[in-house]
Amino acid sequence: MSQQPGSAYFLVDARAREIRTTLAVIVDNEPGVLARVVGLFSGRGYNIESLTVAETDHIGHTSRITIVTSGTVEIIEQIKAQIGRLIPVHRVIDLSLDKPGIEREMALVKVAGSGDKRVEALRVSEAFRARVIDTTHSSFVFEITGAPEKIDAFVDLMKPLGLVEVSRTGVVAISRGAEAM
């Protein structure tokens, strides 16, 4: 079946496709700011896939909130506009569109096992450059840093080897190049 431009198969608007985006939000470091930003998402039914926040300028009392979310292009634009209108927000940068960025995440992964499974877990950890940060006779705790997809792949490989628990930091991101946000 060929799809012609006048075909009903082309009625799906390409803009309606969901995209994943990473937003860096520079805010005043004061009580309640994070709650206001998160409340904006929950109040409108938007999902936050990852959220990290920390003070980045002690003298200027500003913090950086990194939010990973997804939605249509229109929804992402609406989210950015609504966040930008909050009083304590200085800047909102879309690191997926405005300024291409680098994303990293850190995870602690606990794996329990013995014998061949223990040996295989160590072999896989070496391939992923995960560090052993705790070990007992029956378990390991690995520290792994990288893109979220790398961590997902590592966790998936550890499941049949005795995965017990995973703790992830959430995504941190920064724009490429010499200039500041």
Q: Concise description?
A:
The chain has 181 residues and is α+β, with helices and mostly antiparallel strands. The chain has helices spanning 33-43, 73-84, 116-127, 148-158, and strands at 19-28, 48-57, 62-71, 89-94, 101-112, 131-135, 139-146, 163-168, 172-175.
- Assigned CATH architecture of the largest domain: 2-Layer Sandwich
CATH domain fold name of the largest domain? Alpha-Beta Plaits
Q: How many strand segments?
A: 9
Which homologous superfamily in CATH is the superfamily of the largest domain? Answer: ACT domain
Largest sheet: 5 strands, antiparallel
By DSSP (H or I, 4+ residues per run), the number of helices equals: 4
Number of domains: 2
Strand content: 35-45%
State the helicity in percent bands: 25-40%
Structural class: alpha+beta
Global shape: elongated
Low-confidence stretches: none
**Cα radius of gyration in angstroms:** 21 Å
The SSE string, one letter per element, is: EHEEHEEHEEHEE
